[in-house]
Amino acid sequence: MNSIVVPEAATAQSLIRTTTKPAAKVKLYCFPFAGGSAATFKHWSKNSPNWLDIVAIEYPRRSGKSGEVGPQDHSADSTFLQELSVAIRDDAGNGRIAFCGVSLGVTVAIALLNGPLRDLADSRQIAGLILVGRSPFGVDESEKPEKSNEFLLAPPDMQLDPLWREQVLPLLKEDLALDDRLSRSLASDISKGPIVSAPLQIHCGDADSSFSSNKIIEWAALSSHALLDAQIHEGDHSFIIQAEREIFERTVAFLDLALWSIGLTQRGATDTVHQVLTTAVPKSRGKALVVVQPDDNLNRCITETKRALDSDAAVAISFCGILNLLSLDQHMAWLMEYLQRLIASGALGEVLLALPANAAGGGLGGLSSTLAQEGSELKIRRLFISDEYLWEGEALNRTLQDAISIPEENELIARNGCYFARRLTQLDLPNLARGTLCQVPGTYVVTGATGGLGSAVIGWLTEEQGVPPDRIVAVSRRGGADQTSKVRDVPLGLDRHLNLRAVLRTGERLAGIFHLAATLDDGLFMHQTPERVHAVMAPKRALSDLISMSREFGTPWVVAFSSISSLLGTPGQSSYAAANAYMDAVASWETLVSGPAVASIHWGSWADVGMSARSLKALQTARSSGEYPLVPERALQGLGKIIGLLLAGEANGGRFAICDIDWSHSPWRNLPIVSALSPKMPTTLTATYAKAEARAAPTIPEGGTAHPVRTFLDAYVHRWDETRNLQALGLDLA
């Protein structure tokens, strides 16, 4: 039989640390549930990684505070919040912090951020906000169950126990009254707009009648940050204790990702600027080859392909001579269905796509570039042929056979009878001096200007390069560029008929163009449709119109924002890879003679801004690929270096990459394209969190008599732990 352990007296204080973490990068302030105490998070503190400092909040009338009186009205609530905010502010200093609230703790944490800590809520000091077991404020109280039943979590016989009624119930009711007062005032405030700008993680129980999982999305109104991670656990409201270890592990993983996304795990060990070059590769002996001609009879093409693959021959599909910009959508749909049906049939072997070395060929080839990373056992290779005399007849067959004899390269370029492969090489370039772009006469156009990257580029142009705002044209679909920047805001749809004359003044000269416009619609290749791919490609294909019209305005250079997805292949981004590969091909092949110089930059993930920063899935994918996000200052520094090359005339465009990747731990480490980078172990490694070991559930001997409080906890706690007393579980008796 377990006895009730009365906690020893503790020092009266609001912030409790069980373990100190002097090397911590973030402090997590943890707010317990109604009736709970700082001891709720004792396990968290002991098991947290070195980069995470757990600071538990102790409410009034807990251990060591038996003489105190808890807040009873709005005036006392304000005093309580003010005193707690002073303690947190003094403890946090200027470092990164995060808040985790459990049930009542959610309400207290948000009341602080909406009140005495509002300045912190408006800053970037908060790395994350974790909300556990609390419905969004503003939910109609008539829809919620009676609190005395839902939150006491005690069976009827337990409610009759004198010890429980004397020690637990009054504190619980006092806390619930505090929650009710605070939440009513918060409901109207949140309806006016976001309170914080930080990633959110929401935890709820799948059978919690006080907080239905279909209301998780309503928490999005709390933060202006785009990231909202939902975690659904088994159980009713008691999941907040039953799933404590699981909540802890997911909280740590979420904060680890959040810190990574804002660049706090930046290695800073190497330069991030690279150039994509080509190198000649030798031929060897290849296998038998069967050429299948793409036509309207898709069933015939698939049958011939499968027959050839079954005989251990390679298959080549040639789009040379038939693919152009007008037919790109049609051939994109054909290739998508062809490959999807082959993969679905379990086909194994090698298919070589012969493509013209132009923008249409680049876009079509890019569609298949993610398949290897998505686990497809059908190997797809791409051959870009620049010489038109090799596009048909015996010359084509000989070229295809040669390409098959270079099996280690997934992408080849045939030119003048030779074969070339791409290699990523590091560049050591000087920084672009401050104010350089201001000295160049003319206007700068920035497409996709209202996105996170667009705002960063505009800020860099005005602040670092000193370009007057009226010399910057910010183009976006709906307009709405930051009005404080005073740039020329132009709402303009970026379809393939972009008209620069509509955004520039008569006689105006263009000094340069930044093409950032993009749409993201991630999904595995097998789930893609022509309509989804077309929508993602549309803003990228606008580059062709930008270039064509830029010649009229004397534009010397264009910088296109591409992605490493089209360079290396990122799982789930086949449509985005195709769209960016289109721009890469424009930079590689279409403007070398007529100009302007076009630089396509394969960007890695940016910290805190950009499309990947708004997608939890994209962040997780990038993190698992060994990426370290680029802090905006470092990314823009790399951008300036490449523009410096263009201004000096030392590069007639081409393809570049700005990324920080630990190649030795990336899924691309064995690709020939990164072989020149000599992968090394990173100088610093991101800390990992220790998972708590699950303990077996002890059993009560048959015929034994359990203590009534233990009986209550058996229903309250999923796995009763003999070693954890009531204080450790957060249920105080003082």
Protein model, in words:
By secondary structure, the chain is of the alpha/beta class. It is built from 21 helices and 21 strands. The strands form two sheets. It has a 14-stranded mixed beta sheet with strand order 9-10-11-12-13-14-8-21-20-19-18-15-16-17, sandwiched between helices. Helix 12 (359-366) links the parallel strand 11 and strand 12. Helix 3 (104-114) runs parallel beside helix 7, helix 11 (328-344) packs parallel to helix 12 (359-366) and helix 12 (359-366) packs antiparallel against helix 18 (574-590). The radius of gyration is 30 Å and the shape is globular. Mean pLDDT is 82; it is low at 1-12, 140-148 and 680-734.
Helix content: 25-40%
**Uncertain parts:** 1-12, 140-148, 680-734
Overall shape: it is globular
Structural class given helices, strands, pairing?
alpha/beta
Strand percentage lies at 15-25%
Give the N-to-C terminal Cα separation. 21 Å
Sheet with the most strands? Answer: 14 strands, mixed
- Mean pLDDT rating: 82
Number of contiguous helices: 21
- Radius of gyration using CA atoms only: 30 Å
Number of strands: 21
Q: How are the strands of the biggest sheet laid out side by side?
A: 9-10-11-12-13-14-8-21-20-19-18-15-16-17
Question: What are the defining features of this structure?
Answer:
alpha/beta, 14-stranded mixed sheet, disordered N terminus, 21 helices, seven-stranded mixed sheet, 734 residues, disordered C terminus, 21 strands, globular
